[in-house]
Design brief:
alpha/beta; 21 helices; 27 strands; 5-stranded antiparallel sheet
């Protein structure tokens, strides 16, 4: 015992206290002696300090040793207390031991003092150690209990056969069982049948390898019947006598497995979506290396995604050894901003709209970019076709307006020329001049009819037609037009297709296309005319912006001529556009075909290659109605006048004066008006005396000819009306069925034609 002993000595004899210290030091003990001689100082010393042992005299003037012992037990119950006295008897000694004294020593036996002190100090130390161990044991037990009761893991001990020997309280939280419910049961009874074999295999491995830590995942049945995923870490401790079993730590990983499954499903869905997107998508790192490529892009590159990954984008896409100047990825690397640009790439076969977006780490560090390239080749072609169609529509409107105004002028010219010839007031050179004027007017009228056909404002007289018959009937005429050096080939379907169309216009379409083909084959060749029935699906609509789904009859005219240059092909349907020499064409032939096809709710497509010829495909809606025989044409009738009253409404003064003068000259009473509003005023004054309304369809102001007629019909439903126009039926609309030659007169017209129609219509009973 080498440590310093602090001794509190309750003694009224200082000499004896010195003797005790000397004896202890002589025995090899190092001591620090604190001497007190009364109860108050004794109590104060205990409160202010700690001591290894207390020596107390049995009898003092101020207190007894037993009183001091009681105070010591209250203040420091674990400190050894030895009573030292010269008068203590055996009874008093026993009483002191019963009150908690460690030992007692008689002063007359000083040789017992040192051993008693040694023994008391040693016993005190052993008691303190034992108490500390017990305290630590209690603390650890509480700690272990807190861990096992509050842990999310389950601690289990199994015997060699898998029987439960112990389960921690957390079993209730994890699986819903109380620990004592499973006591003595076999753990394999809770294992999912599909996992049972692997669990038994893991147990056998643990039994063969004591001390080996084994980790395994499997499913067990909860108390409520649901299956729970456990991650179990086990160790064979059968050889440890304190454990004598297989020690398992089980953790509920159901949520983790569910989250992993969700992540896996999300990853699979992302990959399927990534590969299903028709756009070209790739992920490129900071070194221009392809890290991910979807199937659409890989297919465009002509390789598999795995073959593309690891190569540079400029090598795979552009066939270059370095990035091109327009590279959006380089721009993203430079400014970390998204960029969108249009790229024409011959290697990929078209035009692409490329969007490049920076790819950042969570810390904001740029690691690459995502490229999305959309093939806009078809869109750009459609946009170009749409612009062409819009241009053609605008040109058509202009052509229709020109034809309308020109027809008014031709009506005046043709009318006066006809009047000069009818009156017989001229002869010789005058007659010849009038005839030349009439002939020129007729040719000009043909030109305006072509313009009206192009602008789709020509009067349409549709009926059910057998297109095979129309083409077959024109074959002989076409042979004479084409000449002997051009071979004509005709292919028609066995079942004749019907279309609802104007027969004259269909003949004009075929004639114009045939003449155009003849001019393209100056050295001869072959002209193939083919009629077929086609069905246009939704997926075919991208071929032409004017197409629509449904059944159609296709009239194809193919020549083996010189072909049309690609830069000229978009303009061939424009009126007055021609590549023929001066005097060999007006530029209205194809424009007329285009207008007739549009007027019949169809469209035309031209395909050509220089040196190999041209094909024109005219699509017309297929009709399912049965064919009806054509009306017999009436025999010409002689011109007759009359005495009826006619309201003539025409905004063009020369046309109005010509018409009024002519009709008055053959006996009719004429009421002229310059507009619809002026005609209404005349009607209010003379309506009971008006037998016929002759009105232009298109007039300036608030009321056109059709609106005027409807207003007058409200007063007189039996009023007879004849319409005239430089336009055709489209200016009227679908509300009123015009009858060409009966109640509609196309400008330009000659006075004889006007007189016949007026007389015939007045003679018809209503």
């Amino acid at each position: 015992m080498n440590r310093l002993l602090r001794i509190l000595h309750l003694e009224d004899d200082p000499d004896y206290s010195g003797l005790v210290k000397a004896m202890l030091e002589e025995a090899g003990l190092r001591v620090e002696m604190v001497l007190v001689d009364n109860r108050a100082d004794f109590t104060a010393a205990l409160e202010n300090g700690t001591f290894d042992i207390i020596l107390g005299d049995f009898k003092l003037p101020t207190c007894t040793g037993l009183q001091a012992l009681e105070t010591a037990r209250q203040k420091c119950s674990d400190t050894p207390f030895i009573l030292v006295s010269g008068t203590i008897g055996e009874r008093a000694a026993i009483e002191s031991l019963q009150h908690g004294a460690t030992d007692y020593v008689l002063k007359q036996w000083p040789e017992r003092l040192v051993p008693a002190v040694r023994r008391a100090v040693q016993e005190a130390e052993e008691h303190a150690q034992r108490k500390r161990a017990e305290t630590e044991l209690v603390r650890r037990e509480k700690y272990f209990r807190a861990l096992t009761e509050n842990s999310l893991d389950v601690l289990t001990i199994l015997n060699r056969d898998g029987g439960f020997q112990y389960n921690s309280p957390s079993l209730k939280h994890v699986l819903g069982y109380a620990p004592d419910e499973l006591a003595g049961q076999n753990a394999f009874a809770l294992v999912h049948p599909d996992d049972l074999a692997s669990v038994r295999q893991a147990l056998e491995q643990a039994l063969r390898n004591p001390g080996l830590r084994i980790t395994h995942e499997f499913r067990v049945r909860r108390q409520d019947g649901a299956w729970c995923h456990l991650e179990v870490v086990g160790r064979n401790c059968l050889a440890d006598p304190e454990m004598a079993g297989l020690v398992l730590n089980s953790r509920d990983v159901t949520e983790r497995k569910r989250a992993e499954a969700q992540v896996l499903r999300a990853k699979e869905e992302w990959e399927r979506t990534f590969d299903a997107v028709p756009d070209l998508i790739c992920i490129v790192d900071a070194k221009h290396t392809l890290r991910r490529v979807n199937r659409a892009m890989a297919a465009k590159l002509g390789m598999t995604p795995d073959q593309a990954v690891g190569r540079t984008c400029y090598e795979c896409v552009h066939g270059r050894q370095s990035p091109p100047d327009f590279c959006p990825h380089s721009r993203v690397l430079a400014d970390q901003q998204s960029h969108t640009t249009e790229v024409h790439e011959e290697r990929l076969g078209g035009d692409f709209l490329v969007t490049c977006t920076p790819l950042l780490e969570p810390d904001g560090r740029l690691i690459g970019s995502v490229h999305i390239a959309r093939d806009i080749t078809a869109r750009k072609e459609l946009e170009a076709a749409l612009r062409q169609a819009q241009k053609m529509e605008a040109i058509g409107q202009l052509a229709g307006g020109v034809a309308h105004d020109f027809n008014n002028l031709l009506t005046v010219i043709q009318g006066h020329a006809s009047l000069l010839l009818m009156t017989g007031g001229i002869s010789g050179a005058g007659v010849n001049s009038a005839q030349q004027i009439a002939m020129a007017t007729e040719r000009a009228a043909g030109l305006t009819r072509q313009l009206l056909a192009f602008s789709r404002r020509q009067l349409l007289q549709p009926r059910l037609l057998n297109l095979n018959e129309i083409v077959s009937n024109l074959t002989k005429m076409l042979g004479r037009i084409l000449g002997e050096d051009i071979t004509l080939q005709l292919t028609c379907p066995a079942q004749s297709p019907l279309v609802e169309a104007d027969a004259g216009m269909m003949e004009q379409v075929l004639m114009n296309l045939a003449v155009n083909a003849r001019d393209a084959m100056p050295k001869g060749g072959q002209l193939a005319i083919r009629i077929s029935v086609v069905h246009i699906g939704v997926h075919d609509l991208a071929c032409h912006p004017e197409a629509r789904a449904g059944g159609f009859v296709c009239l194809s005219v193919t020549d083996t001529g010189c072909g049309i240059a690609p830069e000229i092909l978009p303009r061939i349907f424009e009126p007055f556009f021609t590549t023929k020499d001066v005097g060999k064409g007006t530029g209205l032939g194809l424009a007329t075909v285009y207008g007739i096809a549009k007027q019949h709710q169809g469209w035309i497509v031209a395909e050509s290659e220089l040196g190999k010829g041209t094909t024109f495909n005219v699509f017309l809606p297929l009709s399912a109605k049965p064919a009806v025989p054509a009306d017999n044409q009436a025999m010409p009738k002689p011109v007759r006048g009359g005495t009826e009253t006619i309201l003539v409404v025409e905004d063009e003064t020369p046309v109005r004066e010509l018409t009024c003068n002519f009709l008055e000259g053959i006996g009719y009473k004429i009421l002229p008006a310059r507009s619809g509003v002026e005609a209404l005023e005349v009607w209010r004054q003379r309506q009971g005396k008006i037998d016929l309304l002759l009105t232009d369809l298109v007039m300036p102001g608030r009321m056109n000819g059709w609106e005027l007629a409807k207003t007058l019909w409200a007063d007189r439903p039996d009023l007879k009306v004849i319409f005239t126009s430089g336009y055709g039926m489209e200016v009227v609309g679908k509300e009123f069925a015009l009858e060409h030659g009966k109640n509609f007169l196309q400008k330009p017209y000659d006075p004889q034609q006007l007189a016949l129609i007026v007389r015939d219509y007045l003679d018809v009973r209503r």
